[in-house]
């Protein structure tokens, strides 16, 4: 986001659990499909926002469990915390705004009088969020009782029930929708309001996102009953909001295409991506080459000299490669490794994905590209920061002239 000098072409604001992340997808294919699409076509001029009910603790835990890319902005704890970038720098203005007519101690005092409520884990109790679990048949009466009690104490709060079990008490000005409205106003003040915004969700605590004027919206196919009922009651005639026929991240990709917001054919769905020259760009090249490497090592392509030649052609014969250990080699070492690694991950849950692809133009035909590359095999994950110099050939293909790798810590540990 820091690299954007003007309005984002597209801003995607997505819930995580059961929206961007499909917990029933053991291979994480829908998430990997979205990752490849974003890094190939959108990272350079668009913004990705994760809007989750998770606290920072549980958000970081999810990043260590799933092949997630890094958002430009993270909205956490049901819209009570906004942070920017990989370092997750807090938005102080948002914190000050939420302090109005809010007293956490009074909320806890009144809630303790409701025996039906069970406090959630300590990690889920945040400065502007108090969270409980409650049975579905008890929820409505408790919400009405609590709302009246807190109003009498002079507080202005919002009570959100979602997932059939979670009850969150927040300042009235908080919530996923309000956090998004705050960001949009902030961007507008800076003259950088996104050209298009797509919000994505599956449960009741996402409803506020769909209430923001002018945004596009997608409820993924697996959306919960509470959100579908809210939709039918409030915005069913809004042509900018759809109920996708695809689950989770695949539903988000479907919505990008439905609303014609940009490219929605992810590189993971292109049958012969090695020959895809018409979409050539530094970001697309990085995604393409790593995807080809994954397919080669998983033995999902035929072991042919032609396919290997396509992989090897990406490397400049006179190029250099610096290993994470610091040792320098000719780029031929990477070619040799490719030759010897065919099928070494066959039958295993092996995946490669890239994150934070940032290309800087050096000349009319050369780019300096930095990106994180991750490999997972079962429960094991390793990553490295790659600094690459790419040069575009007359054929339209790219040549990797220099590759420098540095070991990377697990995502979530340094977030």
TrEMBL record:
GO molecular function annotations of the record: magnesium ion binding; sucrose-phosphate phosphatase activity
Domain (Sucrose-phosphatase C-terminal) ranges: 282-408
Annotated GO biological process: sucrose biosynthetic process
EC code(s) of this entry: 3.1.3.24
Domain of life: Eukaryota
Enzyme class, spelled out: hydrolase
Cofactor: Mg(2+)
Keywords, in A-Z order: Hydrolase, Magnesium
InterPro entries given in the database record: HAD-like_sf, HAD-SF_hydro_IIB, HAD_sf, NTF2-like_dom_sf, SPP-like_dom, SPP_C, Sucrose_Phosphatase, Sucrose_phosphatase_pln/cyn
Sucrose phosphatase-like domain boundaries: 9-260
Pathway(s) this gene product operates in, as recorded in its UniProt entry: Glycan biosynthesis; sucrose biosynthesis; sucrose from D-fructose 6-phosphate and UDP-alpha-D-glucose: step 2/2
Catalytic activity: sucrose 6(F)-phosphate + H2O = sucrose + phosphate
Pfam families named among the record's database cross-references: S6PP, S6PP_C
Keyword Magnesium in record: yes
NCBIfam families from the UniProt entry: HAD-SF-IIB, SPP-subfamily, SPP_plant-cyano
Known function: Catalyzes the final step of sucrose synthesis.
Sequence similarity: Belongs to the sucrose phosphatase family.
Assembly and oligomerization: Homodimer.
Name assigned to this protein: Sucrose-phosphatase
Native species: Acacia crassicarpa (northern wattle)
């Amino acid at each position: 986001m820091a690299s954007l000098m003007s309005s984002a072409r597209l801003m995607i604001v997505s819930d995580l659990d059961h929206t961007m992340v499909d917990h029933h997808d053991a291979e994480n294919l829908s998430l990997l499909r979205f990752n490849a699409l974003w890094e190939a076509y959108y990272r350079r001029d668009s913004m990705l926002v994760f809007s989750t009910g998770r606290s920072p603790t549980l958000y970081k835990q999810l990043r260590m469990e799933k092949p997630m890319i890094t958002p430009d902005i993270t909205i956490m704890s049901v819209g009570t915390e906004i942070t920017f970038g990989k370092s997750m720098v807090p938005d102080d203005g948002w914190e000050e705004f939420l302090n109005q007519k809010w007293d956490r101690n009074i909320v806890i005092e009144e809630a303790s009088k409701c025996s039906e409520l069970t406090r959630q884990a300590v990690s889920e109790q945040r400065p502007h969020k108090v969270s409980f679990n409650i049975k579905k048949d008890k929820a409505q009466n408790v919400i009405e009782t609590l709302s009246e009690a807190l109003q009498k104490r002079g507080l202005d709060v919002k009570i959100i029930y979602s997932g059939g079990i979670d009850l969150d008490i927040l300042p009235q000005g908080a919530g996923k929708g309000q956090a998004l409205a705050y960001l949009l106003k902030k961007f507008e003040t800076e003259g950088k309001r996104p050209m298009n915004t797509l919000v994505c969700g599956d449960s009741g605590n996402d409803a506020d996102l769909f209430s923001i004027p002018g945004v596009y919206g997608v409820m993924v196919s697996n959306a919960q009953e509470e959100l579908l009922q809210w939709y039918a009651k409030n915005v069913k005639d809004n042509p900018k909001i759809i109920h996708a026929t695809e689950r989770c991240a695949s539903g988000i990709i479907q919505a990008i295409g439905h609303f014609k917001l940009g490219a929605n054919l992810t590189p993971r769905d292109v049958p012969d991506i090695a020959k895809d020259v018409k979409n050539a760009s530094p970001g697309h090249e990085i995604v393409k080459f790593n995807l080809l490497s994954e397919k080669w090592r998983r033995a999902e392509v035929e072991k042919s000299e032609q396919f290997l030649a396509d992989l090897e052609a990406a490397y400049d014969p006179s190029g250099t490669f610096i290993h994470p250990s610091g040792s320098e080699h000719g780029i031929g070492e990477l070619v040799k490794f490719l030759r010897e690694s065919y099928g070494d991950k066959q039958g295993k849950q092996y995946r490669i994905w890239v994150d934070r692809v940032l290309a800087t133009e050096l000349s009319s035909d050369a780019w300096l590209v930095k990106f994180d590359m991750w490999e997972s095999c079962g429960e094991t994950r390793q990553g490295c920061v790659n600094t690459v110099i790419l040069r575009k050939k007359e054929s339209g293909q790219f040549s990797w002239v220099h590759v420098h790798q540095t070991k990377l810590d697990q995502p979530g540990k340094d977030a």
